[in-house]
Amino acid sequence: MDTTLQDPLVGQVLDGRYRVEARIAAGGMATVYRALDTRLDRVLALKVMHPALATDGSFVERFIREAKSVARLDHPNVVQVFDQGTDGSYVYLAMEYIAGCTLRDVLRERGAVQPRAALDILEPVLAALGAAHRAGFVHRDMKPENVLIGDDGRVKVADFGLVRSVDSVTSTTGAVLGTVSYLAPEQIEQGTADPRVDVYACGVVLYEMLTGEKPHSGDSPAQVLYKHIHDDVPPPSALVPGLPYELDGLVASATARDPDVRPHDAVALLALVRGARQGLTAEQLDRLPPQALTAEHDIAEDRTSVIPRSLTVPRPLPVNEDPAEDGVHRTSRLQSPPPGPPRGSAARRPRRGLLAVLAAVLLVFGVGAGVWYINSGQFTEVPPLVTKTEAQAGQRLKAAGLDVGKVERAYDDTVERGRVISSDPSPGSRIRDNGSVKLTVSLGPETVNVPDLRGQPLAKARARLKADALEPGMVTRQFSDDVDKGSVIATTPAAGTKRHAGSAIALTVSKGRAVHVPDVTGDDPDSARQTLTDAGLKVEIAAEPITSEDYDKGKVAAQIPEQGREAAEGDTVKLTLSKGPPMIQVPDVVGDSVDDAHKALEGAGFEVDEDRGLLGLFGDTVKKQSVAGGDRAPKGSTITITIR
Questions:
Q1: Cα-flanking dihedrals φ and ψ of residue 506, to 5°?
Q2: Is 620 a catalytic residue?
Q3: Which residues contact 614 (CB under 8 A, 6 or more apart)?
């Protein structure tokens, strides 16, 4: 049965803009739909938080954090986030739509994949995570469901819903967020997360791609969590014999239980993956995996969930523990008749029973009154206010019997100016009627003026940009007659322009005064050095001379940069000296006719001169040559032939 027919969102238009066309997938926190942006006429993916969670301020904040975080990651292997907003009880993210499937779909259909395919998928995943790690974020929920494989072969990482700033990752209390099969031991025990938890999850994903199975399984999430803490991930070759040890090493390195032993982030793991690939042969990479290795598993284990802290440090079941201490057996024991009263107590039983009944009645009335007081009109829930205008938030609070309290304003890159960023108490919290709610309203993106950096050394200019909440961008260099070498000529955009905080500013840096390189080819080395030094340039002479038909031995035969090129003052010109023309073998022309001798010698690259004398005025045969046939002479030199 097509469950999308029963989905109330299919066919609706969210926020007056996004028409929901079909449900793609449902997860533990949100449902993903294919939708049409009616404003821009493009297909996209709409991730809608479950309404039950939309009343929880922490989950709403996590959704907004995802939008902000991914919007800052400009990487070809990260699914883009276009927009974020709310419509009634629906909180959504508008994201790039990838036509294709997830890695989970591939594993369900095929089981294990070839090592080449596993590495081809893992490398772009690590590239995406590496960009996030170097930008200061941790994904925290890497799994095959979050790896999208497009019909065109592109691999993209999705669902940064649990993303957190590396600097803000601290121990959590009460619950751990994530998917049990991919949680690192430190996430389970301390609730802490840094880039190494993503490395661990990627190691588990690699194991699953190579074997078709998860490394740890159990009848309950608690058993899986216990194994993450106490058991090493086994080598893939233990399940799939014949896999090369390089792949075992990759899995072992990425899934080390001690986070200090793992690669420190995805970039470091990517380097290990590429190094391991170079050590594998084509036969090893294309080795066909065994079929039907996928084991049945509880789909719920693949969902992102909130795991109670009581489950995160499970204790092993003692060997001799009586199973009747839990579950149905415990209930049956409680239902067995209690022992009868001791003898001699019959006379006191009615009085005790009456007192017990009276106490129970009073307790019921007291508890009932307390429940009535808590759940009656004395308290009300804070309505969802995020992304609403300040006026709309005030109207919603008034309709709920609440007042607008203190209003603070803050810069925000994703929430439009004048709209609510957050409320205190958060949506879904219960407060007394007529209570006040503090609002934080967006001032829009923070903007700063691009500083005037002209004439400042590059290092100082970069430090100034960071101090002004901007980022140093691309550096280009050009000649300047009035700005010292290594100092800033200009910025793009220009000084005084307003830009969002965090924007990259391109810098144009001086190469110094331009010098037209003079021509010193054919000069002797001392003369060439003087000419170049007078022009403000330095000189370097190559260690090995070259043969040259144009320049005599010891003269400058070549220079870099060449004549007429521009160089910065203080740049070095490299000179190469000549070792003269190449030596070639002289043809033997004695006894040849004059015409044949000319053809042979000139064809070999020599000049020819004739010596006829009185006796050779009418001769036509070569009697002698200045360089004997078979000897070597500089190419282009003159050979004299004597004619008799």
A1: -75, 145
A2: no
A3: none
DSSP 522: T
**Catalytic residue selected from 87, 141, 159, 194:** 141
Q: Which two tokens stand for residue 492?
A: 């793009």
Q: What percent of the chain has pLDDT over 90?
A: 41
Interior angle at CA 352, CA 351 and CA 358, nearest 5: 90
The domain at 101-312 falls in which architecture? Orthogonal Bundle (1.10)
Query: pLDDT at residue 360 above 60?
Result: no
For the chain, domain boundaries:
3-96, 101-312, 379-442, 447-510, 514-577, 583-643
Q: In sequence order, which residues have a C-beta less than 8 Å from that of residue 121 and are 6 or more positions away?
A: 103, 113, 147, 149, 155, 209
Q: In terms of pLDDT, which residue wins out, 160 or 488?
A: 488
CATH code linked to domain 583-643: 3.30.10.20
Tokens describing residue 233: 């991930």
- Determine the residue type at 408: E
Backbone angles phi, psi at 557, to 5 degrees: -100, -25
Q: Which CATH architecture has domain 3-96?
A: 2-Layer Sandwich (3.30)
Domain 379-442 sits in CATH at 3.30.10.20
Helix axes 266-278, 245-254, angle to 10 degrees: 170
Taking only the tens place, the pLDDT of each residue in 517-549 is 999 999 999 999 999 999 999 999 999 999 888
- Does the pLDDT of residue 491 top 50, yes or no? yes
Pair 251, 236: CB distance under 8 Å: yes
Tens-place pLDDT, residues 252-279: 999 999 999 999 999 999 999 999 999 8
d(CA 443, CA 295): 52
Measure the N-to-C terminal CA separation of the chain; round to a whole number of Å: 113
Amino acid at 59: F
Report whether 556 contacts 576 (CB < 8 A): yes
Of 195-199, 284-288, 340-344, which range is least confident? 340-344
Angle, CA 248 vertex, CA 247 and CA 252 arms, to 5°: 120
Q: Is the dihedral of CA 593, 599, 602, 605 positive or negative?
A: negative
Neighbours of 232 (CB within 10 A): 12
Query: In CATH, what number does 447-510 get?
Result: 3.30.10.20
CATH for 514-577?
Answer: 3.30.10.20
d(CA 610, CA 540) in angstroms, rounded, equals 45
**Fold match, 3-96 / 583-643:** no
Say if CB 314 and CB 225 are below 8 A apart: yes
For residue 643, the model assigns a pLDDT of: 87
CB 192 within 8 A of CB 181: no
Residue bearing tokens 């007078």: 534
% residues pLDDT > 70 (the chain): 79
- Pair 516, 481: CB distance under 8 Å: no
When mean pLDDT is compared across 37-46, 116-125, 199-208, 494-503, the lowest value belongs to: 494-503
> pLDDT tens digits, residue range 89-125?
788 888 899 888 899 989 988 889 999 999 999 999 9
> If DSSP codes are grouped into helix, strand and coil, which group holds residue 234?
coil
pLDDT at 615: 64
Quick one: pLDDT band at residue 471, thresholds 50, 70, 90?
confident
